[in-house]
Amino acid sequence: MTATAEAPAARGSSAATQQQSGSDKKQSASREGWVRRAPLLPALIFAIIVTQVPFLFTLYYSLQSWNLVRPGSRSFVGFDNYIAVFGDRVFREAALNTILITGGCVLISLLIGLGLALLLDRPFPGRGLARTLLITPFLVMPVAGALLWKTTMFDPTFGIVNFVLGPFGGGDIDWLSTYPLAAIIIALVWQWTPFMMLLLLAGLQSQDRSSLEAAAVDGAGPFQMFVSITLPHMRRYIELSVLLGAIYIVNTFDHIYMMTSGGPGTASANLPFYIYQRAFLGFDIGEAAAMGVVVVVGTIIVATFALRVIFKSFTQETS
Amino acid sequence: MSTQTSTPSKETTSDVGAAPKRSRGPTSGTALTVLTWFLALTFFFPIFWMVVTGFKNESDAYTETPKLFFAPTLSQFNNVLDKAAPFAVNSLVATTASTILVVLLAVPAAYALSIRPVKKTQDVLFFFISTKMLPLVAVIVPLYVIIGQIGALDNIWVMIVLYTAMNLPIAVWMMRSFLLEIPGEVLEAAAMDGAGLAKMWRHVMIPMTAPGIAATALICVIFAWNEFFFAVNLTASASSTVPVYLVGFIASQGLYFAQLSAAATLASLPVVIAGWIAQKQLVRGLSMGAIK
Fold first, then answer.
1. How far is the C-alpha of B261 from the C-alpha of B80, rounded, in Å?
2. Which residue in B50, B51, B137, B232 has the most chain A C-beta atoms within 10 A of its own C-beta, making it the best mutation to test that interface?
3. Which stretches of chain A are DSSP H helices?
4. Number of C-alpha atoms within 13 angstroms, CB side, residue A25?
5. How confident is the model at residue B18 (pLDDT cuts 50, 70, 90)?
6. Residue A76 carries which DSSP code?
7. How far is B181 from chain A (nearest CA, A)?
8. What distance in Å separates the CA atoms of residue B141 and residue A277, rounded to the nearest whole number?
9. What pLDDT sits at residue A199?
10. Residue A318: pLDDT band by 50, 70, 90 thresholds?
């Protein structure tokens, strides 16, 4: 069963060609091509229209000076918006915040997730229940999770965090205005650690147990086994967790909107939130579009690298 | 041990094999178990607290020393249910309709990328996943302008179309991985028996991938139900979904902990329960079919 998942296209096509090589050999190749393509086209056309066409408009708008609150102000300005974007200090800060939030959150949740996965990968009383409890933060609606962290957890007077920190002398911190980025990262880590844990646990459980047992018989200690057997096996799963986590977390909007609104000032705005502000609070369509294009170009640069890794891990065999 | 059997998904393989790790004696094992439970309860605590606070009066929710024992009340839940009902209906419509659309589009597409693949299968797969990497902010501006020009702002159909597009790449990838698991011999045998395409679907492919279709639908439901960015920017009142309802609680700085906890609990409940039931499929769905 598992073997069929590997090298799929090649195997599938050869099987299919064999199937019909007898009966309809003379059928023209182009017709055959369209028969194959037909089931794909609705999804493909739908995806192109809904995701690619708007982006072409983004490109077009980005070359215009266009503010919705000044009707009639629309005009072609070439690359002025781009120059403005790169000269915009807040945009650069938002870019830095995006990197900090994404990097910090992916790294911390990966480490905690790996620790939890290792702890769950051994039998103990109530293991199924413990796992169920641990994945629940990921299932909570992100907006609801952010709302909870902002209020019942981080509230300076009535929040649980300061209540717990009280005995240690840290009981009166206004988290959201003093450490807005840290507060957002904590809430995101809480939400995303279960995601990492689940993927990594699946990796641990796919491990070939016999090689671990053999190593144990040979007298390898647990740490030695972890480094020389488990970690190499887990590499693919770790890469996958990092990449998928980064894809989602880089677009973080809900938590910033709910917890800090990018504040204080613009201290905790990331790129999605800042572009939203320019477009929907500043009504600056041209500049928001230009920022969108810059973000896409940045994403493409990172993604071409990332996609290659994903593709490798999707198509390679789990050996 | 009874707790383990009460959980929805079964542990099968791992119990047998973890033997080498147990060989360090009972003390360190107990310590690890205690640590695991401590962490599990810590992670779960904010959710526990959300549910508990939802049953409080506001005066019980605002105490410097958090109260664990109090006279529970259902008034917050009743209150929220009344106000949130129209939002919940919108969420239900957008989630259900988009999920059905996604499955209808993704299953044939996945077929054309797996069992009877088109020539440029790899390119098409690459295209689908790359749309998932396109930051949503890059398309929100023209979407807002275009949708505004055709007078479709605050329209549930727009949400349905956008959620379909949002989940389509994941669904195509997932369904493809499930279709690839059908052994080639089964398909060949069916073809030898003279089964046409329709028969093949009805008797072979759909029955064999039914759990996969369910898992795909589940993932789409989770993402659509929780979606916020499009909903907050493209709806105003008539078609606002549940996450937008929760925004109301950040504007008011008043004493609303109990009520917002009740609202957050109700908003999360459908997906939490679905996720608990389908833990196994969740892993596969989250990895877009890469991990089984």
1. 10
2. B137
3. 8-21, 29-37, 41-47, 53-61, 80-87, 89-120, 127-139, 142-148, 160-165, 175-178, 180-205, 209-217, 222-225, 231-249, 254-259, 271-276, 285-315
4. 3
5. very low
6. E
7. 6
8. 11
9. 93
10. very low
Give residue-wise pLDDT tens across range A93-120: 999 999 999 999 999 999 999 999 999 9
All domains of chain B in start order, with CATH: 77-286 (1.10.3720.10)
Separation in Å, CA A36 to CA A141, B126, B176, B278: 39, 18, 15, 33
Question: Hey, is the C-beta of B7 within 8 angstroms of any chain A C-beta?
Answer: yes
Instruction: Assess B117–A contact: CB distance below 8 Å, yes or no.
Output: yes
**Tokens at A182, concatenated:** 């840290």
Binding-face residues of A in 257-276 toward B, CB within 8 A: 257-258, 271-272, 275-276
Residue found under tokens 């606070």: B53
CATH architecture of the domain with residue range A49-315: Orthogonal Bundle (1.10)
Instruction: Return d(Cα B258, Cα B278) in angstroms, integer.
Output: 30
CA dihedral B116, B122, B127, B128 (to 10 degrees): 50
- As a whole number of angstroms, the distance between CA B219 and CA B285 comes to 6
Residue A68 · residue A288 · CB < 8 Å: no
**Looking at chain B, which residue has its C-alpha nearest residue A7?**
B180
Contact B104, B97 (CB under 8 A): no
Residue of chain B whose Cα is closest to the Cα of A290: B138
pLDDT above 90 coverage of chain B, percent: 46
Q: Is the dihedral of CA A132, A133, A137, A139 positive or negative?
A: positive
Whether the CB of A255 is below 8 Å from some CB of chain B: the reply is no
Mean pLDDT in residue range B54-66? 84
Question: CB–CB of A158 and B61 under 8 A?
Answer: yes
Q: In degrees, to the nearest 5, what angle opens at C-alpha B43 toward C-alphas A154 and B24?
A: 140
Query: Nearest CB to B18: which of A122, A139, A203?
Result: A122
User: What Rg do the C-alpha atoms of chain A give, in angstroms?
Assistant: 25
How far is it, in rounded angstroms, from Cα A294 to Cα A86? 9
Amino acid at site B222? I
Which A residues, 292 through 311, put their C-beta within 8 Å of a C-beta on chain B? 292-293, 295-296, 299, 303, 306-307, 310-311
Is A202's Cβ below 8 Å from some Cβ in B? Answer: yes
What does the domain layout of chain A look like in residue ranges? 49-315
- A64 three-class SS: strand
